[in-house]
Predict the 3D structure of the following.
Amino acid sequence: MGNPDGGTTGRARAATWLAVYLLLVLAPLAILMVGAQPRPGGFWWDFALALGYAATGMFGVQFALTARFKRATAPFGIDVIYYFHRFLAVGALALLLLHAGILLVRHPAATGGWDPRSMPAHMLLAWVALLAFAALVTSSLWRKRLGIGYDRWRRWHVLLAVGGLLAALLHVHGSGSYLAAPVDRALWIALGAFWLGLAVWVRLLRPAWLRRRPWQVVSVRPECPGTWTLSLAPRHGPVPAYQPGQFAWLTLRAGPFAMREHPFSFSSTPTRAGTVSFTIKELGDFTRTIGSIAPGETAYVDGPYGSFGIDRQPEAAGRVFIAGGVGIAPVMSMLRALADRGDTRPKWLFYGNRVRERSAFADEIEAMAPAIGLTVVHVLLEPPPGWQGETGYVDSAVLARHLPAEVAGLQCYVCGPNAMIRLAEQSLVALGVPLRQVHSELFDLA
């Protein structure tokens, strides 16, 4: 996860993939221009149809955004792609609602009325698609408020997405006057097959590939109350190459087809071969059982992913790390790598926690700090009696008390709850750090 690739090459790749995305979104509209055109139906009729085609195309491309193609996500960071996926779904639903609203107001006879028993099949499919997409977007935006568990939401998310897209494709196929020509219909079928093929790749082919590459749990150890580190190793072959700060999707006590994978950052470093480690806090329905995992259990690891990490800014004059709670995991990956590489450039770690006892890796951090030029600043919300350190939040005042006056050459890495990330980003920029040198790992992908 993290910020986009820097430099000219990264910007060129980003521009290329944005162009590919736009082509995929505009493909349904381009199909309308192929072959013989039907007679114009008036502005509102043609505008509504264009909105419907565009919305269908946007929902179809959603499968490409979640397919985890590493080359496509690398210039942006997969967390950015997932957030874009979320906002794009809202935009596509808005277009679909506008499409339906215009037809209901301006051309009510074409919609088949309100009675599903008398509707043509293709119009009934239109309502199925609209309701499926509305439920999909609503449940995604308000999952936590609605009390929907992550695993259950993921299963329904897939069913609603595939079912809604299939209903939309059949609706267009059955009602589209623009698809009267055989070439138009063939192109539309090919485009629909491509979108559904992406869904097959994501939900069937990639899980089948992962199933053939199992891992096993090597050890489970507590780091602090409620936080555990799992070390894993592949059952066959070496650990895949990864960079400090990256993450992977982890599946435990289930197979890859069960859709019970969760994203976690590596807390291990690739400079220490043989195993990888994930440090996980007991927060939800999945993570609260982490402590009961036993060595020898089977796991599945899909990764690495993400652009968050120190290896993308090797020229940094110094580095600032800001971590909140279990956001220390990718920071530990980076600090361990810097220690193994003998990096002595100046570094600062601002580590926010509610209480001192929940500061994972505190002893290891203190031990490595002198050798790598690391200044450690603990920031507590509930300090113990006699605490002489920082309290409250990692804001501009806290940063200013410990960072040098000249901060323009520092590369900064932020990981933690979203509210903490926003405050840290604003504080760093207020102190004079260019925004392009602030790299954040977005904590919540769903």
The domain at 215-305 is CATH 2.40.30.10 (Elongation Factor Tu (Ef-tu); domain 3).
